[in-house]
Predict the 3D structure of the following.
Amino acid sequence: MTGVQTCALPISDMAYTIENVDWARDKHRLKAIREDVFVLEWRVPQDSEFDERDASAFHVLLLEDGEEANQPIATGRLTQCGEIGRIAVKRGYRNMSVYRALFAALIEVANRHNVTILKVSCSLDSVSYHQGLGFKPEGQVFMDGGVARQRMQCPVERFPFPDVSDRKSVV
């Protein structure tokens, strides 16, 4: 579940490293970035942000190389049932290169662990957007951190990059 891979995609003019990390060993780094983004910035209740799935999920960290060497700038997780979520990117790093690298790393983890269906949780106002990309709704609408959400799914080989233009899309 753990390992380090260097990513060749540039984020503007900076280099970065992607790490597959374990919750038990690296939860302090994962919690720090998720608390910064979700709890402090977006005001998501802390008890909604961390759950029992963190311990068994596959986690990815994106680290900045260079002057701020090994500074975590983004994270995401893939649960055992194939749900991609808890995508947190620090302010100042929110661009498509970061999101693409993060999702690519999570898709690679899914492939390594034979996850065939990927799921995302999106806000209700982006359901039609995700359906246009080939996602299909799964289950009923539910509340998460005070936001009404819908689970969507698609086969891993057809997984497009979801709408990450605002905080309500994929978390």
